Amino acid sequence: MSAIVLTPAGVWSMYDPHQSVLTEICVQAVIRNMFAKTSFPAWSNEAALIGWDDFLEAITPFSRTYHSYKYPAHSSDFHTPQLALESSNPRSGRKCPARGTCHIPSQVDLCKYVSINGVTAHPHIENDGTVYNIGNCFGKNFAIAYNIVRIPPMQADKKDPMNKSDVVVQFPCSDRFKPSYVHSFGLTPNYIVFVETPVKINLLKFLSSWSLWGANYMDCFESNEIMGVWLHVADKKKGKYLNIKYRTSAFNLFHHINTYEDNGFLIVDLCTWKGFEFVYNYLYLANLRSNWEEVKKHAEKAPQPEARRYVLPLNIDKADTGKNLVTLPYTTATATLHSDETIWLEPEILFSGARQAFEFPQINYKKYAGKPYTYAYGLGLNHFVPDRLCKLNVKTKETWVWQEPDSYPSEPIFVSHPDALEEDDGVVLSVIVNPGAGQKPAYLLILNAKDMSEVARAEVEMNIPVTFHGMFKRS
Ligand SMILES: [Fe+2]
């Protein structure tokens, strides 16, 4: 018997019937031989309603995010960072009645240990338990950079690993006063990839906003209309920034799908939103209270989604100026060396559909993170509304879809079969909200990851707001 703990967190206000931006709920389910029998504790219908500032505190690179890791037995199992996000807010921690169930041992202010002002909700966790994350750093004279921090696994001395946290490498910022919004990053066995987008935070506005003119977090965002996207790479083991100027056209980025090395190239797969305008500008309640036709109209003006593969050459020879440096046979992505020593990247399209996003990507993380892989699982957004679950073969572009009318899934979580021989040998879990279903408006869905066919569902007699990120923890 395996125990599953899903801790989904809704983050966009549009789906919350109480019009609160973040609703935190916890769901516990028990599965036997993949056929579900669930038990939802009574507290789950007492979901805490949390305000905008809590949400921002959880996601903003400026917030003081609190991270809880349990060493050594479980840290490597946190294949998504949701625990970090769930536990990142002291207030939400107090309100979440599941803390005992989740066995969160303590809350730690990482900023006290390393030079960062916040970190993302998407750390990478290696199989030995080593945690990597990226955060903004405001140094002397307001010098802004992005630091990669590393938290080692528990050692034999049993001392708190947080005390051994360090900054592995620092990425420079394209603008002295305006750090980019950061949501995730890429990690391979030997390299770290950071994608700096044109969605910028005006630091002067940010630091003065609440106290002086009562602005909110969104008022501090602006777009750099000319910088495009800068991709940065560092040597992970040497902790050395590789000063190679990778550039491409503008997009927003929240989630990396996966990153791996192949014969002198880095393959960087991303869920992008085309253009420099911030996607969040289209997620205001006013956009979402409209009828469906109006919702669609708003979404059509927003940056459009596309899952893309970028290929970054690591060995640069000036003699190749003007040429496409990508020699891998299986990709159409290009990287052209220009005379000013920048390398202009054009992507291979992995998935593209008008107003149809492949987002909230998950992979068989434990076995394939940072390595060549074939399958990604994603939440399908239709004009920003999550209405399906998708599987994508990143090599052939073949897709599989689970979809039912009036059903709104959460991020698909891949759980490998304990004796899996193949990458997609396992199940996909998602919490589905089915508001028209009367007494049982939500359920935990279990799909066969091979073909996204239903294995089982466990219905509950309570309302669960539509949610996004989640996690699986094997017990
Ligand atoms: Fe995220």
TrEMBL record:
<keyword id="KW-0378">Hydrolase</keyword>
<feature type="binding site">
    <location>
        <position position="183"/>
    </location>
    <ligand>
        <name>Fe cation</name>
    </ligand>
</feature>
<dbReference type="GO" id="GO:0003834">
    <property type="term" value="F:beta-carotene 15,15'-dioxygenase activity"/>
</dbReference>
<keyword id="KW-0408">Iron</keyword>
<feature type="binding site">
    <location>
        <position position="122"/>
    </location>
    <ligand>
        <name>Fe cation</name>
    </ligand>
</feature>
<dbReference type="GO" id="GO:0005886">
    <property type="term" value="C:plasma membrane"/>
</dbReference>
<protein>
    <recommendedName>
        <fullName>Retinoid isomerohydrolase</fullName>
        <ecNumber>3.1.1.64</ecNumber>
        <ecNumber>5.3.3.22</ecNumber>
    </recommendedName>
</protein>
<keyword id="KW-0472">Membrane</keyword>
<keyword id="KW-0479">Metal-binding</keyword>
<keyword id="KW-0716">Sensory transduction</keyword>
<dbReference type="GO" id="GO:0050251">
    <property type="term" value="F:retinol isomerase activity"/>
</dbReference>
<keyword id="KW-0449">Lipoprotein</keyword>
<keyword id="KW-0413">Isomerase</keyword>
<dbReference type="Pfam" id="PF03055">
    <property type="entry name" value="RPE65"/>
</dbReference>
<feature type="binding site">
    <location>
        <position position="255"/>
    </location>
    <ligand>
        <name>Fe cation</name>
    </ligand>
</feature>
<dbReference type="GO" id="GO:0046872">
    <property type="term" value="F:metal ion binding"/>
</dbReference>
<dbReference type="GO" id="GO:0052885">
    <property type="term" value="F:all-trans-retinyl-ester hydrolase, 11-cis retinol forming activity"/>
</dbReference>
<keyword id="KW-0564">Palmitate</keyword>
<feature type="binding site">
    <location>
        <position position="469"/>
    </location>
    <ligand>
        <name>Fe cation</name>
    </ligand>
</feature>
<keyword id="KW-1003">Cell membrane</keyword>
<dbReference type="InterPro" id="IPR004294">
    <property type="entry name" value="Carotenoid_Oase"/>
</dbReference>
<comment type="similarity">
    <text>Belongs to the carotenoid oxygenase family.</text>
</comment>
<dbReference type="GO" id="GO:0007601">
    <property type="term" value="P:visual perception"/>
</dbReference>
<dbReference type="GO" id="GO:0042574">
    <property type="term" value="P:retinal metabolic process"/>
</dbReference>
<keyword id="KW-0844">Vision</keyword>
<dbReference type="GO" id="GO:1901827">
    <property type="term" value="P:zeaxanthin biosynthetic process"/>
</dbReference>
